[in-house]
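Lab notebook: predicted structure, single chain.

Context: the supervisor wants predicted structures on file for every construct in the current expression panel, including those that have not yet been purified. This is the next one on the list. No modifications to the sequence; it matches the entry in the shared construct table.
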Amino acid sequence: MNSATQTLRPQLERARRAWRGSPLPGFLAWWGGELRSLLPVRWQSLFSSGNVWCLLRHEDGHWHVRRSGQAQTTAPWSDTLDAPTQQAMLNTAVAGVDRQDLRLALCLPLEAVLRRRLLLPEVARDNLRQIGAFEMDRQTPFRTDQVYYDLRELPGSAPAGRIAAELIVAPRTSVDAKLEHLRNAGIAIDAVDLCEGDKRLGVNLLPPEMARVQRDPRRRLNLMLAGAAALLLVLCLGQWLHNREEALAAMQTQVDDMHGDAQKVALLRKQLEDSAGASGFLARRKMDSVAVVDVLQDLTARIPDDTWLERFTIDSSGRVGMQGQSDKAAPLIDVLQSSKLITGTNFQGVIQRDPATNKERFFMDAQLRMPNSAKPASNSGAGAAQ
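Prediction complete. Output recorded below exactly as produced.
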């Protein structure tokens, strides 16, 4: 487990630095503060979260405590008091802070540390503490085992491909004495830092092996709440999808029913159109055609008595064929030209005399004259072209 933690530590540190360097923490802090300010005063403390840093400073044999960002200092106490009394004094000084959020930082005076500004390659951002140990001999007169140190990235612009950093070094001799006083008093600290005005600088000179491990008892609860929220979100999404599927299935059923009704209506409409078309077709055929009886009656009235027909045909296109014998076949053309039922009368082939009857045998063809068209042949050709 330790090896896994060591392996993931650079990635975690990189993620923390990226998060701190982004504008999101400041925006979320501002937004949360604005929302908390809208709540009643009694509720504001319940919704405050995050670490509360209290700065512990040692001056002239006395300990002073104040909250980071506040100028007011609590009543000091002497470092010669016994451990229970000093712990009671500290508890009184931080009485308004939740013990789970309380973080103590030992603040060193500015004159007790050495600060150096460095320009480093961007690749050094992920290993600042190792770079600080490497630069110790060149930037300070101390060795690494003689000091407590930290290297922090400075905000602001820097040359391309470089980052600005600050190396902060404090001799172990001066820090160890204060740490020993706190250890004898039973007071554990979380960081060794510097004070800039009424705030901490934001570094920790303690090496990682000396840092106090903070166990957040609310982390498990927060993880459980986050898991429950995620589960509820998944359930809500599942319920929403289920409702959508049910609504879609109901709509599909309605569409299927309407589709069946539409098919029935379409079938009835087709049957009606077919029936209307058939009746209309018969009516049009009756109106557009000439009765054969009328044609025969017209021919009988016009053909002379010395002429008779042996064969008479009318095909579907209205073409009339007549074959017969006559004493004089040639005048038949003139006789039939005035007919109102047939037109275009012509002989087919030559007129021959029949030796048996001594009459002229002929074959004629003509075209029925349609009642609604003066030129049926041309109209039928135009309809075919269309």
